[in-house]
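Review form for a predicted model. The reviewer records the input and the model, then writes brief findings.
Reviewer: anonymous (R2)
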Amino acid sequence: MASGLDQGAKICALELALGQDNQIYRDKGFCDWLAENRPDIEILDKQSYKQEATAEAMSITEDWIQRFGVDGIDAIATQGSTITIGVIEALKSHDATDKIKVSGISIPPTMDWILDGTAYSDLYQDPMTEASKSVDAALKMIKGEEVALDDPDENWINVEMTTVTAENVQEVMANATY
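Model under review:
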């Protein structure tokens, strides 16, 4: 998303429920990356949903539009697919999908939204690769073999996500395993 934003862009972030590992690590990675690569980008607000992700995402996005205006937000980053749906639906109701860039976590509608310009970018999590790496690691552990963990203290293996934009969405969709 950052490559499509002007200098001094203003963004909002909508996170998963607070305290989950995936929320914590996604937030840390997001903030660390921006600080290192795009310190000019201002995060106007970060919020998380508490119960029903899509409905709350719509409500939070509506609040941001009221607070900052459609022209006061350059982009919204989301941490989950159902959150992305709520953000897009709220932006559609304000005819703002062409004004505010949205970057989320992939699901089939997001890919379609990238194709038609409604969403700017996406991160695709490949469930087949994640499952395969998990099973391979578990089998090695059962056999007593060493497993190369990305963070031995946290006992996890990182599976890189694919950044999806208009340039590669067709290829990702053709190979997606969702």
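Findings: The first helix runs from residue 21 to 37.
Further findings: Helices lie at 21-37, 53-68, 81-93, 108-116, 127-142, 169-175.
Recommendation: see findings above.
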